Amino acid sequence: MDLCTSPLIQYIAYRALKDGVVQKNLPKSKELYRMKRDKMLEAINKYFPDGCRWTKPIGGLFIFAWMPKGIDTKEMIQSCIQKYGVAYIPGQSFFADGSGSNTMRLNFTYPSMDEIEQGIKNLGEAINQRLNK
């Protein structure tokens, strides 16, 4: 128990753990997230321009990506949302020294497989557009 989380949410989590709901669904969830991770990695490999690199997570729910030098992901986020309908977390806040302005964190758990493909395609287009300015 804690003081900040809703007591109802805490009770639901408690029951899910106590009744084995989490353990029962864990294998299915892990397989689904593995498939989504692999789909996103495949799409990144297909649509991101040369000069980009990214992680292949063995745990967790995010892919961390580096754009070519000169791309500021914090500056690019609003146009990605408005023009391309895709969002990410600018990666600079994950660097203690303030570097990482050309990085982003991508989550693969929420979107469908088709949304992953289209979203990464759109993001690749946005990156290419920035590079060709």
Please explain how this structure is put together:
There is one protein chain. With 133 residues, this protein is an alpha+beta fold. It is 53% helix and 11% strand. The chain has one domain (38-131): Aspartate Aminotransferase, domain 1. The chain has helices at residues 7-18, 21-47, 73-84, 113-131; strands at 53-54, 62-66, 89-90, 103-107. Strands 1-2-4-3 form a four-stranded antiparallel sheet.
Structural class by SSE content: alpha+beta
How large, in whole angstroms, is the Cα Rg?
18 Å
- End-to-end distance, in Å? 52 Å
CATH topology category name:
Aspartate Aminotransferase, domain 1
Shape: globular
Give the rounded overall mean pLDDT.
95
Helix content: 40-55%
Total individual domains: 1
Number of strands: 4
Determine and state the CATH class: Alpha Beta
Into which percentage range does the β-strand content fall? 5-15%
Order of helices and strands: HHEEHEEH
Instruction: Give the biggest beta sheet.
Output: 4 strands, antiparallel
Low-confidence stretches: none
CATH superfamily: Aspartate Aminotransferase, domain 1
